[in-house]
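Why does residue order matter? Because the sequence determines the fold. Keep that principle in mind as you read this record.
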Amino acid sequence: ICYDSYMEIQQVPAPVAAAPEHSKKRFIITIVGVLILIVLLAGIYLVLRGTPLNLKGVTVFEGDYISGELHSFGLLGYKDINIPVDGFLSDYVNENGVQAAVVLSPDETGQDIFVIGSETKMLTETGNGKAALAVSPDGTSIAYAETKTAGTLFDVRLSEWTVKTLNLETGETWEVGTGFAPQYFTRDGVSYLLFTSPRGVVVADLAAHTTQTSFFFNAGTLDYVARISADGSHLAMQNGVTRKYDLFALNRVQAPLGLELIDSIDPVLESVTFVGDTLYGTQWTEETGANLWKISSDASAEMVYTFPVAGHHRIIR
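Structure:
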């Protein structure tokens, strides 16, 4: 009898011990199911709003180089981004761990660059017009274009801008040359800076502090700035005759650039920008409104989004 009683005592706890494990599995399954449902509902929401899921992370500046509003594509579609600045937002970049902005002063008399973070810090104090921010791959420097004439906030002429780099750790500034739209890229493990001058496309070797110019005809305005992918494999540049952007494969970064034409991009786009290695373009006409296009590596283009507000838009790299 004692033996039987002992066996009963040993057998009773077994099903009780299994209950928490069963509840845990059911809880996990429920959570996974809820998450899947949320993703599905978010996908349906984006489809109904006409926002492709693959645009997540693409940032858009709505306005000109004087002032405008910042937007980004996210899980819940096209949303506003509020950047806390004292003045008016003119340009913005957020890459490689650095968030910086060009800010127009509250009295609208000058522009300067600020690093945005837990503590906002002013990086420049000239007041001249500034635009086209870019961050180096290692996050230690920024590049930008600054107007040459004091008090001038913006100029459409390439000759009226100076491309500069600023070391965020030492404060050292390098005046690279005359031009606009500096963009960092890395090729074969070497970091370069590319921008467009009135004479053509300039590639700067950041380590050697040297530049090489590949001569291309342009009308000397910002419409003709070249754009390069982050890996330095492709370059896009507007054709002065057709006004369409031509997409090239880049085989050599030393001057003269080794360019192999892939094809022209149709339709005519207002501006293009590589986000990483993917090329996007914006288009604005009174007939079509403001649209976002995604360009494939063969230069074919697909309209992927229509902006809710007609006007000028540019993609932030």
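Helices lie at 2-11, 13-49.
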